[in-house]
Amino acid sequence: MFRPVNSKANFPQIEETILRLWQDKNIFKQSIERRQGAPRFVLYEGPPTANGNPGIHHVLSRIFKDIIPRYKAMKGYYTPRIAGWDTHGLPVELEVEKKLGFSGKAQIEEYGVAQFNQRCRESVFSYL
To answer: Are the CB atoms for 21 and 59 separated by under 8 Å?
Structure first.
């Protein structure tokens, strides 16, 4: 009635096979799209930090940001994943000021606000 279970299963290989299937058939996207028209649930996800590399302390929030929409999807909600964006202005500016050796507004203005803003953008994108 049941096939015997192989005691020497190659789990990494099985995982790769399943992952390829999901990618080839775009399963994740389909799982969201088939619920269009259902009650909507969105958990906006912003970056954990824009002025440093993620740390181990970010893991718990990432788990919740993954589990909650999955749970809501299983309950029938339409759960598009929408990434928020917040560049955390002041911490980024302070980091760039420190890198440039500045200690206030006058030095930023002398350097050039547009150039300083560009350095801030570069700083933020260096952590993606």
So the answer is: no
Q: What residues contact residue 62 under an 8 Å CB cut-off, 6+ apart?
A: 48
Q: Which amino acid is at 39?
A: P
3-state secondary structure labels for all residues of the chain: CCCCCCCCCCHHHHHHHHHHHHHHCCHHHHHHHCCCCCCECCCCECCCCCCCCCCHHHHHHHHHHHHHHHHHHHCCCECCCCECCCCCHHHHHHHHHHHHCCCCHHHHHHHCHHHHHHHHHHHHHCCC
C-beta atoms surrounding 64 within 10 Å = 10
**pTM surpassing 0.85?**
no
Express each pLDDT in 31-59 by its tens digit. 999 999 999 999 887 766 667 777 888 88
Sorted by where each begins, the domain ranges of the chain are 12-74, 89-125
